[in-house]
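Fig. S4 source data, part A: sequence.
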Amino acid sequence: MTGVNLSKQHPSVYKSLMKLDADVKAALETAGVGPLLVELVKIRVSQLNGCAFCLRMHTRDALAKGETTDRLAVVAAWWEAQYFSDQERAALALAEQVTALAVPERRTWDDGSLTGEQVSAISWLATVMNAWNRVAVTSHYPVAP
């Protein structure tokens, strides 16, 4: 067996993940995390997880919401680029920490640019994005031109 489409094999579990995703979206809105920052976090988590399906989807979403190609081009090395605000840098570092829990060297993200509510909402965003990446990669979602 080369792979199983998780969403089709267990649709009720997939629907539960969709509900969690909607709850996280509401938490992000309540916490005042903007839509471009949400897409940047989704893109960075997907880069770390090697999820081509989610990378393509969220890059397109970010562009549609007004993100620039320059910022998207350097999000994989955000810490070296001056394109990102302190809040964006903190959110990207936090998302990396949530995604790569076993990495001993962690970036300092707790510089006061995120509220406690934003830290929680972004942590949930990274958690749910990790789940989506694993569904897409495990299910071998096609990514063709």
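Fig. S4 source data, part B ends here. The two ends are 26 Å apart (CA to CA).
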